[in-house]
Design brief:
Layout: E1 8-12, H1 17-28, E2 32-37, H2 40-53, E3 57-61, H3 67-81, E4 86-89, H4 104-131, E5 135-140, H5 153-173, E6 178-183, H6 191-196
Parallel strand pairs: 1-2, 1-4, 2-3, 4-5, 5-6
Bound molecules: nicotinamide-adenine-dinucleotide (NAD).
């Protein structure tokens, strides 16, 4: 008997890096997992590999900044696996640009992927978590939620916001047995980290 047998999880940005690691860990613990990513090619490839060893996995291509795409993702998980217990908001982007270099569109994109997503997934997932009797939302923030770092103002601002949004959701939904936590990794060797190298 595994700890998460019978539970269903959605992990965003899970085609590679930290999200893929979290998806693998959830599968190992017994959960069924919807791997979601904006990168359809890589997402399909990863799921084809995982499904060969474990049937409890499916892919749903999603841009987490897109309202209707996130609604579709949550619906997909519930239709595919029958319930929803865990949402991991892992998808994130970094832009190595000072405020002088970044356009308004650059700023908006980082904030939409890193923060709006954490507003959207609970919006659609909460009724299902409630129906399941409770659940968990894990938001991947960053050490940058606490400290400034060079040449990444939008990223640092977005991770600060992700942390405070997590705290707000935690006090709103904790009484309903829906735990909301933030994971704040330090430097982790992933494809994203390669972009950040030299800007810490
Ligand atoms: N790697 C680090 O050192 C580090 C440190 C602290 C926090 N983090 C955070 O951890 C999370 C994962 O980071 P990582 O290093 O694994 O990154 P990564 O770039 O290796 O992987 C991110 C994944 O998110 C997907 N993605 C990007 N935009 C998306 C969108 N709009 N919709 C859906 N998916 C999208 C990408 O396709 C990719 O598969 C991010 O939120 C990142 O900010 C990373």
């Amino acid at each position: 008997m595994n700890q998460l047998d019978g539970k269903v999880a959605v992990v965003t940005g899970a085609a590679q890096g930290i999200g893929l690691g979290i998806a693998r860990a959830l599968l190992s613990a017994g959960a069924a997992v919807v791997i979601s990513d904006v990168n359809g090619t890589e997402g399909e490839r990863v799921v084809a590999e995982l499904v060969a060893t474990d049937g409890r996995v499916a892919f749903c291509q999603t841009d987490v900044a897109d309202d209707s795409a996130v609604a579709n993702l949550i619906e997909f998980a519930v239709v595919h696996f029958g319930r929803l217990d865990i949402v991991v908001n892992n998808a994130g982007v970094v832009a190595v640009q000072t405020v002088e270099e970044a356009s308004v569109a650059d700023w908006d994109r980082v904030m939409a992927v890193n923060v709006r997503s954490i507003f959207l997934t609970p919006k659609y997932a909460l009724p299902h978590l409630r129906r399941a009797g409770g659940g968990a939302i894990l938001n991947v923030a960053s050490v940058s939620s606490f400290f400034g770092q060079q040449h990444t103002p939008a990223y640092v601002a977005s991770k600060g916001a992700a942390l405070m949004l997590t705290k707000s959701l935690a006090v709103d939904y904790g009484p309903e047995h829906i735990r909301v936590n933030a994971l704040c990794p330090g430097i982790t060797d992933t494809p994203c980290c390669a972009i950040m190298r030299g800007h810490g």
